[in-house]
Amino acid sequence: MVTTTWTTAERYRPYDQWPTEQLTTLRQQIAQSHWRFGYHIQPTTGLLNDPNGFSYFNGQWHLFYQAFPYGPVHGLKSWEHLVSDDLMHWEKLGPALIPDTPLDQQGVYSGSAIAVKDRLFLMYTGNVRDQEWERHPKQNGAWLTTTNQVTKLTTPLISNPPKTVTEHFRDPQIIEHDGQYYAFIGAQTTDLTGHVMVYQAPAVTGPWTLNGDLQFSDQPMGYMVECPNLVFIDDRPVLIFCPQGVSADVLASENIYPNAYVVGQAFDWETFSFIDPSPLQNLDAGFDVYATQAFNAPDSRALAVSWIGLPDIAYPSDREGWANGLSVIKDLHLKNDRLVQQPVGVSTIRQQVLQVTMPHPVIPQQSELHFTVPADQQGQVTIVTDITTNQGLILNIDTAHGELVVDRAGTGEAVAATYGMTRTANLNAHQPLTGQLLLDHSVFELYLNDGATVLTGRMFPATNADFSLSQTGFTTALGWQGWQLESVN
Questions:
Q1: CB within 8 A of 149, min separation 6: which ones?
Q2: Assuming Cys at both sites, which of 22, 216, 289, 446 could form a disulfide with 274, CB separation 3.0 to 4.6 Å?
Q3: Is 433 a residue whose pLDDT tops 90?
Q4: Mean pLDDT, residues 217-239 taken together
Q5: How far apart are CA 414 and CA 324, in angstroms?
Q6: What pTM, to 2 d.p., does this model score?
């Protein structure tokens, strides 16, 4: 029987002490789910959260994610490993890092990866707790070979946080610059404020030396910064990160925790400072994006992938024994000091062309829709997820005043209703709008104006029927184009 108590002892039970029937029962439950994805990455069983180790090595793309396979809760974490040739079709290779040493015995937490000659180096946080359950985070390393065999280092790269930092010290991002290696680590200082600490080493295995704080904003970053990622786009620095508890005066967000970014005009490697940084901006204007990981690929692209899920939020699929997923891969660009995110590889899974002619065309639950809205139009588009109630995902579009509101209240079972059921994207008034909407059973990704604004969210329709489409209020016809998308899971 699948456990439902989830005491601390259950969450942190060693993997080798779980009965084999736990995973068998979860798989049976999950097989009945109509909320499972067709082309987004999802856990085989249990929980998926932060993407980790996104990299290119040995002729393939590599991606890992934090996992707790024994239930849809945050428990004893490991890293699951996936590889791909095209950033869309991912092969699951199983667990790569398991919490099986004194350096990570309470969980393999988030980290990153970098190719070093003929091996891939993994840098991650090991969650270690003493008998009083006090945390002692370790920044650890491991090598992955061309045959995907992993060997952990037996001593930590960084044994303890600096004295000015609390137990919250995690999520190292490792990069190389001019023959030196740098690690950017999320931290909470003893005054309970969030920071990014910078470490430097002549080799990935160390010795690692603290260089101080990353200087990327004059504003307070709340009580903790998680998942920092520094990438360069057109030689300009972009920091993508999660400032927990940040003031609404610094960054307005309706979600429990935001995923943010800052853009600099240049980067000073002597002082680890952004030159003329932008204000904080939300990476995603939707409901359910967090812990985005980005890296500079060998082909010069800046690529990113996001956890579609949020800490401390329950989702209806939890009762089926699985939780959360990852976004499609996104190609990052800059335009007018703002990030532009464009989905990668979707064209490779297009199948049947959809005849999107009104009224009420049928839309498969795995589909891609493109639409154009002329300037100075006001109306509503509904992706009907329940034909019996004629309710669904609503897009209220106003190109006269420059606003699009996504309303998921009618999509089925409610998610995080405390934080509101609508999200608003501000657009340019009196300008036409283009949109690309990716639908995948219980997740949507909406890219506006070629990715200048993105809204991502979960939805949990009551039935497994195809969706349909309706539009009202527009005085000029919208342009529609669509495809049914292939299953790759």
A1: none
A2: 216
A3: yes
A4: 97
A5: 15
A6: 0.96
Name the residue type at position 115. A
**How far apart (Å, rounded) are the C-alpha atoms in residues 140 and 126?**
6
- Would you say 212 and 272 are in contact if contact means Cβ atoms under 8 Å apart? yes
Per-residue pLDDT tens digits for 361-391: 999 999 999 999 999 999 999 999 988 888 9
297: exposed, middle or buried (C-beta count within 10 Å: 0-12, 13-18, 19+)?
A: middle
For residue range 66-107, what is the model confidence (pLDDT) as tens digits? 999 999 999 999 999 999 999 999 999 999 999 999 999 999
Phi and psi at 436, nearest 5°, equal: -130, 115
| Residues found in the chain | 489
Give the burial string for 186-222 (b: 16+ CB within 10 Å, else e).
Answer: bbbbeeeebbbbbbbbeebbbebebeebbbbbebebb
One of 50, 288, 398, 440 is an active-site residue; which one? 50
Q: Please confirm, yes or no, whether 218 is among the known catalytic residues.
A: no
Which of 455, 454, 423, 459 shows the shortest CA–CA distance to 441? 459
Given a contact cutoff of 8 angstroms between Cβ atoms, the answer to whether 175 and 114 are in contact is yes
CA separation for the pair 444, 254 (Å, rounded): 18
